[in-house]
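Sat 14:20. Reprocessing the chain from the morning session after the first attempt stalled halfway. Input below, unchanged.
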Amino acid sequence: MITPAGSVDRIAAALLANGLVLRGGFNFTPSDAPPTGSSGAPAAAVLLVGQAGAAPWPHFLRWWEQQPQAIANPLDTWSREVIGAVAQDFGARAISPSDKPYLPFQQWAMRAEGLKPSPLGILMHPRYGLWHAYRGALLFEDEIPVQVAEAAPHLCDSCAEKACLKSCPVDAYSVQGFAYQSCLAHVGGANGEPCRSGGCLDRNACPYGTGYRYPPEVQAFHMASFARATS
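Finished this time. Tokens:
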């Protein structure tokens, strides 16, 4: 079980070998109704695993090129394999945001890193902007030494332009939420090429974290995955 503080550092190093990073964590309280750990007992703690920018992409591509056949959700499969191997080495249970029944990953992330959602629903990070993601989590049945996250500066509060709500040609994002059917129809239509090849125009319009922006090929991959998942 993971009790020494140095184990967290070793977990971080193991994940970093594949471009993934620890995204904070916390110890559950009795009121959290935590999910089960590796033995089936309630988990005592969680460490979130994710990415900053597109650091995992070359690791994922090397793995993908070696697969013998088409995989329906290759990035999810790769993430499960990598995080699962780390979980096995450290006595944890690996979970994924796409596992059913769904677990409250966004609420956990807000608690672990002190973040708030942007107008696009993606959590706004003070360094990475909108260019980050959560790929999974590690559940432990012992408490772990983690620092309680303080509220991070929410950059959206000081952003007067809100360019992220003005760039989509079909106004898919608004204060009413995300009109995914309008987005999907546009992406698949005759005028959807900029989005298909370069990613969401609203997301790209955000002025924060641009140094971590995903390259066009990574954005195109995610846009194609979105189109398949919602069609």
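The chain has a mean pLDDT of 93.
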